[in-house]
Write a structure and sequence with these properties.
two-stranded antiparallel sheet; 15 strands; mainly beta
């Protein structure tokens, strides 16, 4: 009995350390495609490559919309995302309150997210009748998450596009047209059926 208990206790740390080598199975839907035209580099100790105003950037500015290509794994070395055509398997839209100074969206499966600081906003004047909680202004950020599928690059599993941070009633998740403006000539999102604007 004691021997079985000891073996069980020793096995617990090993179970806690195991991680899924690949993202969970994507839905078997074909909603369109994401065509990546340029190679992207993910920095070491990261899982994301940022594109803002058609340029690859190392740090995102929450005052402008941004799109993020996400790898399932964080690596000690840089990772490359090569030009590819990714199947678009799912689209999810989210909105979140970032009045506390940051917003967290992204790879909830891994317990990770993209964090944006709101430095430089100062103390804005809050428009009357717009999303207050008590006397506190409510800043919001919205995101469109696209589940990507590629046989060549199975670890590149998501494209997340964030709105600029703004007042609650003015912030909407980016549309396909918005995402394509953010991505510029780096990548393009194409839906099978036209999205209602």
């Amino acid at each position: 009995m004691l021997k079985s208990l000891l073996l069980g206790v020793l096995a617990l740390p090993l179970i806690g350390c195991s991680t899924a080598p690949f993202p969970p199975q994507a839905p078997d839907a074909n909603l369109g495609k994401v065509v990546l035209s340029k190679q992207l580099t993910i920095a070491s100790d990261s899982a994301r490559a940022f594109v803002q105003a058609g340029q690859v950037v190392t740090q995102a500015d929450s005052r402008d919309p941004v799109c993020v290509f996400e790898s399932w794994q964080v690596s000690k070395q840089t990772q490359s995302i090569i030009p590819d055509v990714f199947k678009l398997a799912d689209i999810t839209r989210r909105r979140g309150d970032v009045s506390g100074g940051f917003g967290v969206y992204g790879s909830t499966d891994m317990g990770m997210g993209v964090t944006f600081g709101l430095g430089g906003f100062g103390s804005p004047v809050y428009p009357s009748g717009s999303g207050r909680f008590g006397d506190q202004p409510r800043l919001t950020q919205a995101a469109t998450l696209i589940r990507l599928v590629s046989e060549r690059q199975p670890l590149i599993y998501q494209l997340t596009c964030f709105s600029a941070t703004g007042w609650t009633q003015f912030v909407e998740p980016p549309t396909v047209a918005d995402m394509n403006m953010i991505l510029g000539d780096v990548a393009q999102v194409e839906l099978v059926t036209k999205e209602k604007e």
